[in-house]
Structure formats: C-alpha cells, structure tokens
C-alpha cells in the first residue's frame, strides 16, 4: 500500500486519471473546504489508485475469482420459460442498440442458444437523459432458493456519519457487473435483443439474491474497516471521518507537524481513504470516478444529510413543506400534517405547534382555515427550517444521556439527548418521538399515565439506551419517584409490572417543572398519515417481565378462611422404629439422606434446629451476632411449641406440625403409598394440610416421581419429533400388506400394494399366505408392471419377509421392515385396507362373501377418485392423463371430444409431445403439494404433542423404562404394567434405537425403538460393573454400529439376513413414531386405531 506523502507533488496525468478527468474530479472536491495542498493530496491518491477507479465500461474491474468464485444460481427443478419482449419505442431504437453493443463489447453480454427467454426494458437514469437496461427476472426468482441475508438499517448506518468534520462516499462502478456469473447459470438469464439472443455474464440486477450477495461481498472486502472507518450498503461505501477536527483556541485547526498546509483531521481521513481504496483495488473492485467523493464536509448518506453538526433534514423535503400553500379541505390538511410528520424527529413541540391544524381533522369538526391555522402552518415551516441537527449517541463519553418524557391524554412524548463535554448545559439531540395512546390507555388516571409513559418510552428506546454509561430521566411528575420507591403500595399487579420493568434500567430520576419540560408538545401530538405503525399490542403486557421477575396474577382470589381440622399426630406413624411396617414388599423405603435436595435445604434444617432450641429456652444461639440475630428472631416468631411439638403458624388458624428429618420419610409413605399412590398434587395437598418442613414440596415431588409402582403404571406416552419424508417418484417406493377377508370364491386373503406418493392401489385375492404366492404376485403385478422399485415397505409377516428376502437377493429391491408394534409406519396400505373394504361391502350390497366379484371395480374406483393432498386422482398422477369414465363417452365431455376429421401422424405426435411436455410440470406440482401437506401436518403434530415430544438422549448407565406395547391391544391389559423396568441404557445405535440390559447384566437381544424408552427416576444410584454384561465387547460394538430403528431388525432375528435401511442417508426415511404417521398421511382419510377388533375380518392380523 502506498504511503501517504506529507508534501504531495503536483498533478501529472496518468493512464486513466487524465487532465480532463482531473479537472472534473477536482471540481467536485474544490468547494472551499480543502486547502490547495490537501487537494493535491487528493489528486495523488487518485493517481496511486487509478486502477481502482473507472470512468467507462472498458475500465470496469472484476472481483478476483480466488476471493469471489463465479456465482452459481441455486434453483429448483423447473421448466424453461419463454416471455415476450416489451416493444422498443422507435424513437429510442438506435440508442438502445448502442447500449447493447457497449455491453457486448464490455463482456457483460455474450451470445446464447438456450431455451430460456426473459423480458427486459429501459428506464431513465437519475440524470433524466441516459437510459438503463433493466432485466425482468420474475420467472427466475420464482424458482430461486432465496438468500436470507438482510442489509443494515439505513437510519442506524447513516447515524454514524453525522457530527463528523468530514466524510467520504464511494460508489462502485456498475457494481453488479464486477461479480462474475458461473457459465452453468448464464443460460437462465437469456433474453432476446436486436443483436440476437444474449445472456448475462455478471450478477443479474433483477435477481432476488443479488442484493444480499453483493452486500456480503463488499462487506467481506472491508471487514477490517467496519464499523470504525467504513459503512457498507450494497454498492455504496461510506467512509467515516475522524471524531474531531482538532480545533485550536485561535479558531484554527491543528495541522500535521511535517506540513502546516495540511490539517490533521484531513490527513487522518485520507489515510483511511488510502487504506480502503487499496483493499477495494486489491480485490478487483472499481469505484465510479464521477460519483465518488474522497473527502467532503457534508453529503447525502442513504437519504440522510450528514453534516459536522449532525443529521439535518433533507433539503428537498424541507422545500416541499415550505412551499406548501393553504389547505382547502380536510384531506389537504391531513396530507400536510403527514408530510411534516416525516420530519417530526427534528422538531420539538411538534404536537403543540400543529394543534390548530389537528383540530380540523377530527370527526364532525367544521373545516375553516383561519388565522390560527395559517399561523400554525407558518410556525411549523419555520420550526422545520430551524430544526436542530441530530447527533448519534457517544457511548464512550462520560457525558450523561437524557431521556425526557411527558405524557398527556393524547400521546407519550419523549426525546433523547446528550450533553456537550465542554458545556453540560448544552444538549445535542438524538431523536424526538411521540407514541399515540388508544382510547383505553387515554382513560388512565394522570398518575397511572405518567408511570405508563415512562414504561413505554423506556421500552421504545431500549435499543438506543443499552450501553449508555449514565442515564438521566426527566419527568414533570414528582410523584413518580415515590411510586418507584414503594412498589408494594401500588393498588394492582399491572402497575407493579410496569415498575419492575422500569427498575430494570439504571438511571437517575430528575423532576423538571412542567413549564420547562421540553417534550410537552410531543405528548399532545395525535396520529397523522405517514406515521409508522407501532408494533406494540395494547391488549397484552410484557410477558418477559413476569418471566424475569417470577410474578403471578391470581384470577378470582378468595378471602374465605380455610376450614379448621384439628389434628393430633399419631406417634406410631412418626416413630422411626416402625419403618419396616411401611416398607414396600419389593422395594426398600429410601432413607432421607438419599433424597435429591437443594444445596440450601440442609442449611434450612440446621436453622430449624436453632429455632427449636430457641423455642424451648428462648436463649440466643451461641456465637450469633446482633446483625444475624434480628432476622433470626423474625423467622423464629413464625413458630410456637406446645407439648414439645413445634407448629408453624398459619394466618387462617390451621397451624402445621413441623416434622424433623428422621420422620419425614414415614409421612411421605403414609400420604402417598397408603393413600392409593396418588400424584404429586394430591400427595402435596395431604402433606401441606397437616405438616410443614423446609422445602417439603421438593421432597414430595422427588418421592412421587421416583415411586416404582407409579412409574410402572404411568399413562404417559412419549412421541419423538416427526421427520418429513420427501415424496418419491411414482412407484419408486411401495407399501405392501396382506390381510384377512371373508371367504369369497375360495379366497380369504387380500394382498394389496400402494404407491407411497400417489396411493395408486394394486390388489388381488389369494388362497394361502406363503412366500411363493406373495413373491410371485409382487414380481408379476408390481415389478413387471411398474418397473423396479427402489424400496418396498412391509410389516414383519413371515411370508412377506421370505418373499422380499428372495426378491432382494435376486432382483435388488431394497426391503424396509417397520419396527415392532409400529404398524402405523405402514399406514399408507393399512388405512387403504379400510377404504377398500368399505367400497367392497357397498358394491356387494352388504353381502361380504361376494367381495372377489367386485374387487376390480373397487380398485378402479380407488384409482380414478381425486385425492385432496394430490389435487388429482391417482390415475392422473401415475399416467399424466385423466381417466375416461363411461359418462365421458356418453356425454362427450372435454376429456374425449368427438373427432371431426382424421388426424395425421404429425398431428398425433404433436399432441402426444404436448402431453409429455406437461408431464414434468404435473409431477412437480403433485410432489410440491404432497410435500407441503406433509410439512403442514408435521407442524400440527409438533404443536399438538409439544408436551410429550422427547428429544432427550439417554447416556450409557442411565436407568430407563420400556413401554410394554405387547399388551396394548390385549383385552386383559387393564391390570398389567404399562412400562417394564427399570432397565439400564448401554447406548444408542446409529439408527437411533437403544441397547438395553436388565439389572443383572442380561442384554436384550434386540434394540428397542426410541419411542418406547422413558426415563426411570431411581431413588439410589446403581453402579454398572463392566464385567457383569452377558455379551462380549465385540457383540456390543456390533449392536452399537447397527442402523436399525427398532426391535425387529432381521440382523438380530437370524437368517435370512436382510440389510436394514439407513435412516440417516435414506432420502425417503419413514418415521418410527406411531402418532406422527397419522399426521403425515392423507388429510381426507384416517387410520385404524385401537385393537384388532376394529379390523372387520374378525381376528388380529397374524402377520403382525
């Protein structure tokens, strides 16, 4: 990087920076702000970095590919689009052709022969003379995978440039043309021109991802300069000037020691410019030589006029307001207030000044533009012209930041300012704000209004005030200080919420008399057109306050005294010598030392020992200081002793017996084990009605949760998060099942197969359920008819397993078997059985033994009936054409129009080609609709089962329970345990299933599906010796490396071995959760639920 000289040489023309260009460039900078030596330094900078500037397309640079490789447009599968061009006006034809020729010469356009065609048109540039070509890429944007990047907030970015002695702005020369487009993606931008089909070689200007991509590129180049010295917004680079101009007492400025003709702040700024230009030039970027300003005293940054005094109103907006004449009706008055309201951040007392005009906009007000309104309009114009500049907050300054708030019945007005370091009486304003109140808020009392105004003002300016070292809040209501200091005296919980929220900010509160309070006018400003809509919901209070401070609001609290139940504790029940009486027959009652208690619980017990001693002797505990004795005495007075039994006082007179640690387990056994093993609430209520000890609620919760019988009989069923499978191509994935039917024509079994995406059915009646018949039917009716399937999903029926084992070995078809007790994973064909049986029963007029005669017609009806999730019939989804019904032939509908003449071979081929061309689009639409419905149903499933979704992974050595799914369909299941265990988790295999072992070390032979495993809360830890397990380390390692998802992986069931599916790499992986499948299937159908009696053939499916 060239070093900045202290004595710059005189200008000498170079290759790009010619004498003519130097004159124009110097004219932009020679505004009387820079000294001659400083202008020479600017010329020297441009000469040194001339490769970083461009005045024409031939000089435009390109980002280096080693930093920014060519962009590949991420698009979804689609059909090429062809759009008609917008006609070129004859008067502009030659000029447009000249622009295209320049783009071709510059390498921005190149010839193309792709099948895409996009629109383009011309618009005028800002100068109002030259034209710019704009490419309309809406079709490309529709299939583009969107980039989620966002640009900075312009107001916050421009705020950093205000209040600086100078600044700089750089505009990249046709920035998008500096980023190259990958050749594989260029065809997508093809468009038709008078010079033939052309395509873009650079980043398209109308592409939806261009803005975030290019913004990230420039930010990456200048990442070392952001945010201290540079601010980036897409292709605009702002250079932030020094914090001060180093003024001297004699109204001069400090200069550099080597040259008294160059000011220090100018030299520091140009050093930053030198470094930024070097980074841009090294990356291959070029700045516009006509639009770039290296150093100026003031300029426009993202629509904000930034000056050494701060941000000031834009002159064009000020002129529009200043030239506004008298308003003739309500609409013009509202328009004036709305336009002036844009600059309300710059005007103090805006609402008070505009009040006469505001009255005319009210309902039923008579419009009369009189002297008061004319004076208000004139005053408002003058106030905008004389409005102070807004400065950014200096968070490193020790000077205080002031938030002045005033609230009226109309609005909450406030401003933020910071004092001058040299004169604390002088303030630099940051912003003026006004929040309009709704009708409900306007009816608050004045005291409540003032508190609410402070609450809302702090919330609205929270992002600005975070990081302020010293905050001062100014109010004209002195009583707010007392309200904040005594929150307990407030009449309701709403005010206390506001107070707690306000006290979360650290500030000093000052009272300012109303006559000197500046925001008074802002608080009387109503809502005007153009105001930004507030995101605050007045019907809801800040929930985060309740969560942070642990507040609770009682609904319909009662003040009735609780009933009195005098209770004399049974000494037999509290006698520790009778522990064995309450011991469970299969489990020892835990000792109190084994309870999982908080760290503060033992200290509370020790404190109660001191209280018990004090109640008996009323003597101060030994060694307790005066400071500690006072709170101890207040605590001890909450208890009293009678007949050597300690009671805790109760305001309702129902005093509780204090239970010492050695008797607490017996109380829990009596209140839980001997009263029906009720839940936590019932047990805690029984204890709380009669007894008390420190942290007794936590002890009750732990005891009930760790009860073995309660865990074994729990009704909770966990669910695992659903996975949404991508729709497979038609008949790439097939679900098959065999079910019983009544005897019909010698057949009592029905084998059925369905496509996973279209639900297109194939079925036949069979006489025997053996592998030969099943395998032959699959090969002839599925593989030979629809091609080789990628996957076939079945349950664990013996005939299906054997048949698929042979097909997998000889035909290469992948076989996936659903996990044990998870028949819903094969739900596509399971609920298809129900629909098919319903149709057969109705076609046979209720004669169930005639179903074989009507099976072909039932299958035909299933195939041609439209499905909600497909948006068409399975027949159309599979074949691409609508089925022809008998009615179509009789009525000659649009599906088969009557022929008018013989078709030629060419016409017939053309019709079929058109149908084939629509096929891909139809399939894409079907897949998109199916996938969207599955995603929607998965979200509904997660919402409905949010409380039971289990994402926890059990580590090796943790105790777990196993869901007893084998008895869930049994008729005698009511008194049988719903969970088995405890078992020991040995880990999780690659498929997500758990390897479990009994407490004696016997390892279960098969992995257990994740949805069957639940945490066991033990009352004591159980060490697991490594040498206790009954399997070898190699066998255990093989089980851990398996991919099975559940109990029935064939690798653990013996031959024939069938490779399990890999859910991690399987693009069509199904979910093993039972309930999730319900949501992921057809929205217009449902599953069979409950036990086997719901299947109409009369007995459980033996295949399962």
Automatic annotation (TrEMBL):
RNA-binding is among the record's keywords: yes
GO terms for MF: catalytic activity; RNA binding
Matching InterPro entries: DNA/RNA_pol_sf (IPR043502), Integrase_cat-core (IPR001584), Integrase_H2C2 (IPR041588), Retrovirus_Pol_polyprotein (IPR050951), Rev_trsase/Diguanyl_cyclase (IPR043128), RNaseH-like_sf (IPR012337), RNaseH_sf (IPR036397), RT_RNaseH_2 (IPR041577)
Pfam entry (one): Integrase_H2C2
Keywords: Multifunctional enzyme, RNA-binding
GO biological process annotation, one example: DNA integration
Annotated Integrase catalytic domain residues: 726-891
Region (Disordered): 1039-1069
Cellular component annotations (GO), alphabetically ordered: nucleus
PROSITE patterns registered for this protein in UniProt: INTEGRASE (PS50994)
Presence of keyword RNA-binding: yes
Domain of life the protein comes from: Eukaryota
Protein name (database record): Integrase catalytic domain-containing protein
Source organism per UniProt: Antrodiella citrinella
